[in-house]
Description:
This protein has about 250 residues and is of the alpha+beta class. The chain has 7 helices and 10 strands. The protein has a 5-stranded mixed sheet with strand order 4-5-6-9-10, with helices on both faces. Strands 1-2-3 form a 3-stranded antiparallel sheet. A two-stranded antiparallel sheet has the order 7-8. Helix 2 (about 60-75) crosses helix 7 (about 215-225).
Amino acid sequence: MDQEDAVxxxxxxxxxxxxxNAALTREGFExxxxxxxxxxxxxxxxxxxxxxxxxxxxxxxxxxxxxxxxLIAYLDGASEDALIEEILLPLFRQLGFHRVTVAxxxxxxxxxxxxxxxxxTLPTQHVLYxxxxxxxxxxxxxxxSKAANVNIAEIHNQVTMMLGHEIFDPEIGKRVLVDHxxxxxxxxxxxxxxxxxGNKLDASKRSQVMFMDRDDILNLFVVTNLPLPSGALLExxxxxxxxxxx
Length: 246
C-alpha cells in the first residue's frame, strides 16, 4: 500500500483503498493514509489506530532531534499550567489514557494533591485510576540542608493526599480511589529526591508512585509524533542574506 507503488491511479490510491476496505470493513476496520503518507489501520467503532507502541529509547532522526530542542526551549519558559495543559494532557491522551481531567489550581481545597486525574483500561477491561502531581522545575533533596527538602516534602504531602482521597468518576457514577500517582517534573528529578520520597512512604504506597522527569516527557512527546505547542518555536538566527552588500 505504499503510495509509490501506485499503478494506473493517483498517489492517494483510492482504488487500492476501496478494494482493501471492502474486506476490512466486515471485520470492523478501515485503512487510511495519514499525513506522513503511510497506510494505517483504524478500528471503526473506537477510532483506535493500530500502531506499534512508541519506543522512547530508540535513536532519534534529525527532524525529531530538532523538535526535541524546540520543546526544551518551550519548557524552559513554560509555566506549570502550560506544562499541564499544553504538554501532559495531549501526551497522556495519545498514550491511551482517557477521561483525562484537570483538577485545576483555582480551588486548592478540592484538588487533594493532584493536578490531573485519568484512567486506563486494561485488556481485561479492569480500570486503573491515576493522579498526576506536576511541578515546573527541578525536584531535589539534600541531606545537608533541610531547606532543600522543602520542595520534595511538599510533593510528599500532596502524594499522600492524592492516594488517600477519592475522586468521582461521572462515567460510572461512583467515587473511587487513585491506584497510582505520577510525580511529573518539567526539570530533573534527582536520585536524592526519589530516595527521600521512597524512605518517607511506606511499602504499600511506594509501589503506587511513578516518576516522570524532563527527559521522559521529551522522549515520549517526540516518539508519539504529537504536534508541538504553538509557543514551542526556537528563535531563528539571522541569515547571511540579511547582511548589507556594502
